[in-house]
Amino acid sequence: MHTAVHNEMAKAPIAGDIKYSWQSCDFCPMEVFKSSSEFVRHLREKHCTREGGSFVCRYGSNSVCATLPLDGVSDRDYESHVNRYHVSQISKGPEQWSVFSAAQNLPAVLNDPNRSKQTTFFTRTWGDSFVDRTASPPTGRLPDITWNHFQIYLTKIGKRYKRHSRFEKHLSVSSSHIGHHLNGSDLSGDYGLKDIPQIFMKPHLELSNPATFSSVFPGVGDSANTSQSGRLLQEKLSHYLDIVEVQIARQVSLKSSAFFHAMTSQDTIMAQMREASADVRQLRNKLRQIDEAQVKEALLVAKLARTRTHYWSVLEKLRLMATVHQTQPMIQLLLGTQDYVAALDLIWTTQEIVAQELIGIHCFRHLPSQLMEMERLVDKMLATDFEKYSTADLNRPLSADEKVLDEDKLVCIISGMLRKKNFSFIDTYKEEAIVAIKAIVKQLVIEVIASADEEICLTGAGEEAQSLSLGEWIRLLESATGTLLKLLKRVKAVHNVMQHTADASAGKVDATFLDSEAFLSPEDHRVVQLRLGDLLHTISNYCHERCANLVSNESLERSSVTAEDISRLSGIVGDFCSGCREICGSQSVALKVAVTNQGTRFANKFHTERKSKLALLLDNERWKQADVPAEFQRIVEHIGRGQFEWSHEDGTHGSPPSAVLLVDGEPYALVGAALLLVQIVSEYCRCAQQLPLISAQLSRSIVDLLRTFNSRCCQLVLGAGALHVAGLKTITSGNLALVSRALQLVLWLLPHVKEHFQRLEGNGAVVTGYETVEKDFVSHIKEIENKVLSIVCSLVANQLGSWDARPPVPSQAFRNISRHFVKLHEAIAPILPDVQVHSIYRIVHRSFKDKLREQIVKYNIVNNGGPQHGVVTSELTFYLETLRTLKAMPANELRDESLNDIWIK
User: Fold this and answer.
1) 464 phi, psi to nearest 5 deg
2) Which residues have C-beta within 8 Å of that of residue 639, sequence separation ≥ 6?
3) List of residues 6+ apart from 72 with CB closer than 8 A
4) Which residue from 56, 141, 414, 553 has the least number of CB within 10 angstroms?
5) Is residue 895 a contact partner of residue 835, using CB atoms and an 8 Å limit?
6) How many angstroms separate the first and last alpha carbons of the chain?
7) How many angstroms separate the CA atoms of 35 and 372, rounded?
8) For residue 443, what pLDDT is reported?
């Protein structure tokens, strides 16, 4: 903890230094800024998010600014916030460290979730030892050093040390031996250097020290024995002096040969010194001559050359100062010609020259601040000129052939913005375009309202208050989409100029309109590209949203909308989406969703009306055969060819109705509800072909309509609901046959409808629901057939139950059976196809034989040619003749041999 605090204090500026907060970013340590405007631009790009039209400051810990609300502010308020809280702050010297600066505190230690429950923290003292220390594991980067690593060094040095110790010991012994020899000679008498106190052997004998003085002169100052102690001390010191002189004399006598040798060598050395002195004098004379003849002139030449270089440097400096002095007029001239890039380059170059080459020049002490003011002026001029240009360009009258307004001026402004790395001009143009779109839509609404008869009020957004007629409403949408496409073309043209200018500024393309070298870095160029792409995408989406607001109102619900109206609306939206995709390269789903919603509303209304109409028709249906108008015959013929689009006057005017409907050459006797069902289904198919966007919903609606028709028919006929709803007295076989024939017509219609919707949805599309409907209709037809059979078979069984093989022939029971067969044939033969009629009579015939066989067995009648056998034969002949007359079955199935199986062999 202390180390961390120390490091933080080391990083802090020295006490008393003043540092502006905009010089560096607290969260981007590599960023350094020369001015506050660069810092503000950095905050907008890196530490700001835009949510809708609001700006949210993210400059703070965890990307949260403590002084700005999280819901964001406007662009102007965000600029004021940055200047007030992030630019105007001044960081002073480091604060004094206190206990509150610690990275760890007592609650953090006690509430550590990684530690188990602590029970001893009340008995411990807060300090370094409060937290248990854990031993750090050994690092794997350092090797494990053992004694063996020093063995080679110790072996090598040990030998040298032993040799040194022996040599030192030998020298000690030799010195002590020589000293003993000298001390024991006749010259020393009984005394040696060992008799002299060691205090006199010290290199620094300071008598001024009281302790040293007392040791050297003991007893001095004692008044009693002053004279006696003085003589003794004098004798002792004289004795010490004699010993020293004797030792000196002994050493001189031992080194006498060396003294004589030194004296002899002194003469030789003096002679050599005299020769050397002569050589030095001679050398100095020669050096003096060389200095006079060659060195002084050469040094003078070098001095003059250096002086000339200094003069040239001063001249260049003066010329540079003269050039810098002309900077301000030149900048004014460049700004007058709108050459913002050159003006900015000149400002920055001059600032660099003043900071590096002309530093300390008193006359230019105010020039840097003046240049900064001019740079701010250029910023304001660029922003003002671009805003004026955007307003003038977007609000001028729209034309089919859109061209860029004053392209050279636009290129100059954009180049200046890019040179300043101020990319907010793209957002500015985006906002101006959005304002222009709002104004266009509002003006179009006002024009439509002005042409309307009734008084209408506007909403705040500029849309009408849902009181326009359908024609006015669609005309408004058509006018709005066309106008907005023209505006998008104008925006696209300006976008292309911005993109080309950015590419030229980054050196991507060659451009003659830029005099300077490429100045846009690859990173900045990518940022500009992303913003330009977002410009087109955002404006296109906003156009779609404004049109979607028009489409999403409730005008359609209050008007009688036809499929043609929805088709026209879909065409308008499709053309607008295609135009936006061609211009901007992207499309929005907002308008398509709005149109789809309107189509869905129309489809729901369309289906509800026809479903109610069909239900009303079925409730009022008398279930009798109806005449078929020529129009319905034409509808079926077109459906058989896969066509659902035709004219109402397609050769049917004045044609009389027919009794049956011919479907692929087969007659269909139908009720009126069945004919109207075909017409309603054809209307669904025509509407789907006209409005492909709701074809899937219409397909599902047809399935629902057919299920409703099937279930309602079953309730009214099989369930006898028509007796109460339509007032029928009874449900006859003819009614059942007509229902069956109507269901068969729907089964013929289903594949054509399914194929039609598959073609609308695409070859790979799957149209669901038709298989289930087909199964339901087939099952219903089978139920109707079973109902007819149950009625007839019940009548046959009742008649045969009272029959007996006795005259007269034919019996009343067989006469009644024949009468029922004739009535059934009269009821179903004109309605149902022959195949189905034969199938019904075949089942009835089989039931007749089974019941007759039971009666023959009951009365024990055998095939023996007897009277009872003759009666039965006559009855069967009458029965077969009735069936042959009705042609209820194929002739080969009505031969006399077909009844042989009734006899028990």
Assistant:
1) -75, 160
2) 678, 682, 749, 752
3) 50, 51, 52, 54, 55, 56, 78
4) 141
5) no
6) 118
7) 9
8) 84
CA torsion sign, 635 to 638 to 643 to 645? Answer: negative
Q: Which amino acid is at 203?
A: P
Residues near 346 by beta carbon (within 8 Å), at least 6 away in sequence: 327, 330, 331, 334
Cis before 657 (ω within 30): no
Tell me the average pLDDT of the chain: 79
Which has the closest alpha carbon to 414: 491, 338, 517? 338
Contact assessment for residue 755 and residue 644, using Cβ atoms and an 8 Å cutoff: no
Which one, of 742, 743, 720, lies nearest residue 731 by Cα?
720
Q: Under a CB-based contact definition with an 8 Å cutoff, are residues 530 and 559 in contact?
A: no
Of 434, 451, 441, 443, the C-alpha closest to 477 is 441
Yes or no: say if 880 and 896 are a contact pair by the CB < 8 Å rule: yes
Is residue 408 within a helix (H) or strand (E), and if so which, with residue range?
helix 407-419
**Calpha distance 423→139 (Å, rounded):** 51
What pairs with residue 54 in β-bridges? Answer: 51
Catalogue the E-assigned strands of 646-742.
661-663, 666-668
The whole-angstrom separation of Cα 542 and Cα 217 is: 116
- C-alpha span between 740 and 827 (Å, rounded): 13
- Residue 69: φ, ψ to 5°: -60, 150
Q: Which residue has the higher pLDDT, 701 or 806?
A: 701
Element (H, E) at 888: none
Closest CA to 703 of 640, 775, 646, 633: 775
Cα-based angle 16, 20, 23 (whole degrees, multiple of 5): 130
Contact indicator for 375, 36 with CB cutoff of 8 Å: no
Q: Which two tokens stand for residue 655?
A: 């044609």
Instruction: Give the span between the Cα atoms of 668 and 745, in whole angstroms.
Output: 8
How far CA 835 is from CA of 720, 785, 890, in Å, comes to: 27, 13, 10
344-376 pLDDT, tens digit each: 777 777 777 777 777 777 777 777 777 787 778
β-pair partners for 458: 464
Please confirm whether the linkage preceding 808 is cis (ω < 30° from 0): yes
E strand or H helix that includes residue 57: strand 54-57
DSSP 27-55: S-TT-B-SSHHHHHHHHHHHSEEEETTEE
Q: What are the two backbone dihedrals, phi and then psi, of residue 564, each rounded to the nearest 5 degrees? A: -65, -40
Q: Which two tokens stand for residue 481?
A: 């989409």
Distance of CA 360 to the CA centre of its chain: 53
Residue with the bigger pLDDT between 706 and 551: it is 706
- DSSP one-letter code for 582: H
**DSSP letter assigned to residue 789:** H
In the numeric block, which tokens belong to residue 197?
Answer: 């106190």
SS3 for 73? strand
Residue type, 653: H
Give the number of other CB atoms < 10 A from CB of residue 433. 24
Can you say whether residue 654 is alpha, beta or left, with left for phi > 0 and alpha for psi between -120 and 50 degrees? left
Phi (first) and psi of residue 178, to 5 degrees: -65, -40
Q: Residue 218 has what DSSP assignment? A: T
How many Å apart are CA 296 and CA 302, to the nearest integer?
Answer: 10
Quote the pTM value.
0.54
Structure tokens at 145: 């050093």
Which tens digits make up the pLDDT trace of 449-506? 777 655 555 554 444 445 566 677 778 888 888 888 888 888 888 888 888 888 887 8
Express each pLDDT in 610-635 by its tens digit.
899 988 988 888 888 888 888 888 88
Helix (H, G, I), strand (E, B) or coil at 861: coil
d(CA 33, CA 31): 7
Token representation of residue 865: 């040619």
Greatest Cα pair distance in the chain: 205
Tokens encoding 49: 């998010």
For residue 667, whether the previous peptide bond is cis, meaning omega lies within 30 degrees of 0, is no
CA distance 180 to 195: 13
DSSP 287: H
